[in-house]
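User: Some background: our group keeps a shared notebook of sequences we're curious about, and every so often someone picks one and asks for a predicted structure to add to the entry. Today it's my turn. The entry only has the sequence so far, pasted here. Could you supply the structure so I can complete it?
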Amino acid sequence: MHISSGRWVYGLFLALLTAFLWGILPIKLKQVLQVMDPFTVTWYRLTVAGGCLFIYLSLAKRLPSRKVLGPKGGWLVLMAVLGLVGNYVLYLMGLQLLSPGTAQLVVQTGPIMLLVASVFVFKERFSIGQGVGLAVLLIGFVLFFNQRLAELLTSLSDYTAGVLLVLLGSTVWAFYALGQKQLLTVWNSLQVMMVIYLFCALLLTPWVHPLEALELSPLQGWLLLACCMNTLIAYGAFAEALAHWEASRVSATLAITPLVTFGAVAIAAEVWPDYVHAEQINGLGYGGAVLVVLGSALVALGPSLIAGLKARRARMVAS
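Assistant: Of course. Here's the predicted structure to add to the notebook entry:
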């Protein structure tokens, strides 16, 4: 069983860095998608990130061994690869139809899908605290979509299609997370990410158009490179955060990612109005976004909160 190092300040910094990088990512991707298709953007991101990890692990002589996987290892890799490819491509297809903030908020359903899947696959408990968090999250989504709730429920507009694509992407992400969770029992996080990234890139190769990158403006070219490095650095910071801080607290910190996106969009729309447009959301919608973040944090912290309350109650009884 993994035990954190106890360097919680460092772990908090890395979790906040991850939230920041993930928060600004959809703004950069939105600009690149004006020229390149989702398959090609994803291919570039995975190829660069996987290639960098391959070079590092080769130099460190820590490349993963196929022998340790066992008979079911290949199926786990396949499940993780298909889940991550589906997540990346579907998210970008949805992002083409949505604002960065809306897309990032819908992505918050991914950990919920993983939680539900873990209850059935790994027989993990679903605590009362997590149930409260899930209820808060659902109320938050209703409030966030208050201006377009009728549209979402009654018609298949571009907006509805975008939400459904991101939601589907979050669902298949749960399969990636389940596969990765099992693979981490035989490989470390960098080895798992390298294998998954490179296999994902290989799987996408027949559908990509690499020369589209030549059509990017200088600004869009730098943004594509930033997206590629974001994939590498953010996931690396996330994995390192887990080594120094409890997973539940890291996950709760990452729940602020949509708020980072909304804040970044607001700033970018003021500084670069020709490139980034402000979110068209009313006050009730922003309140709903805060509830979604709060609900996600409660879902992540639910078990530890309940355990803490029980321990405190036991100490009171004992005294």
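Suggested note for the entry: The chain has one domain: 8-318. The two ends are 32 Å apart (CA to CA).
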